[in-house]
Amino acid sequence: MRRKLAAGNWKMNGLAADLSEIEALAAAHPAPRSEVLVCPPATLIAQMAWKARGSAVMVGGQDCHARPSGAHTGDIAAAMLKDAGASHVILGHSERRADHGETDALVRAKAGAADAAGLVAVICVGETEAERDAGETLGVIGAQLRGSVPDGATAASTVIAYEPVWAIGTGRTPTPAQIAEVHDFLRAELGARFADAEDFRLLYGGSVKPSNAAEIFATSNVDGALVGGASLKAADFGAIIAALDAA
Ligand code: PGA
Q: Cα–Cα 20 to 30 A to 140, which of 31, 126, 146, 156?
C-alpha cells in the first residue's frame, strides 16, 4: 500500500508570523494516516522545522541547486536544505521551469543532488493549456517524466506531481477522467523504467481545495496532492488532509 501524501507549497509567501499556521496544523492533525509535508520559502525552513519538531508535519524546500556547493550566489544546495531541517524538496515546478528556464536535464541533475543529500524529490510535470488543446498532453508529460526523473530514482527517493499548468492558481481543475488518464499513464511509464513503479506516490496539483479534494482523491492512481494557495491556512490544508485520510 502506498502511504498517501499531502504536500503544501507556500511558494513566495510567508513570514515568521505565518508559522502559527503550522502550529495550528500540527495540533489539529497529531496523527494523520497520510504523510504531511509543507514547503515554505527557504527563509522559513529552519524555523518551521523547529516549530514542527515532534509533530507529523514534515518540512521541504521548493528548489535546490544541482551542485553540492560552490560559487552560485543566491542558490541553495540540497545539503543546506537538509541541514536546515528539510526532508523533501520540490523540483521542476512549472513556475521554476517558466520563470528560470529550468529544463528536464537540469531538473534531473537537481534530483540527483537531492538524493545524494538524503532529500526526497517531489518532481513536477504538467502540460500547458495550449499543449492540452493540441492533444499533446501525454506526449509532453511522458517527455518530462523521462527527462526529469533520474535512472537511479526509487519510490523511496522520489514522488511525482502532476500539475497541469492551466490549473495552477486558476481555480480550474481537470475532470477526474482527465486526471485518471494522466496518472494511469504516469504509472505505466514508471513501470517501463523502475522495478518499484507501483510504490511511487503520484500527487495531483493545481487548484486543490477542501471542496474538490475528496473527488480528486477518489481518482485512479492519485496518492495525494501538491497544494499551493490552500496550503497557506491551517484550516484549509487541514480539511484537505482530512479528505485524504478518509479516501
Ligand atoms: P495551487 O498551486 O494549489 O495554488 O493551484 C499548486 C502548485 O503550484 O503546486
A: 156
Tell me the per-residue pLDDT of 167-206, one tens digit each, with 9 for 90 and over: 999 999 999 999 999 999 999 999 999 999 999 999 999 9
CA distances from 81 to 11, 36, 49, 85, 129 (A): 15, 18, 11, 7, 33
Provide the pLDDT for residue 1: 82
b/e for 2-19, b at 16 or more Cβ within 10 A? eebbbbbbbbeebeeebb
> Of all atoms in ligand 1, which is nearest to the CA of residue 95?
8
| Residue 179 within a domain | yes
Q: At what angle do helices 234-246 and 210-217 cross, to 10 degrees?
A: 20
Domain count, the chain: 1
pLDDT value for 47? 98
Closest ligand 1 atom number to CA of residue 206: 5
Q: Is 23 a catalytic residue?
A: no
**CB-defined site of ligand 1, < 6 Å:** 9, 163, 168-169, 205-208, 226-230
Amino acid at 16: A
In a domain, 75, yes or no: yes
pTM beyond cutoff 0.85: yes
User: Could you tell me the residue range of the domain that residue 82 belongs to?
Assistant: 5-12+32-246
E strand residue ranges, 115-214: 120-125, 158-162, 201-205
Question: Is residue 193 assigned to a domain?
Answer: yes
- By the 8 A CB rule, do 62 and 9 touch? yes
| pLDDT band at residue 209 under the 50/70/90 scheme | very high
DSSP state of 119: P
**Residue 93 annotated among the catalytic residues of the structure:** yes
Q: What CATH number is attached to the domain comprising 71?
A: 3.20.20.70
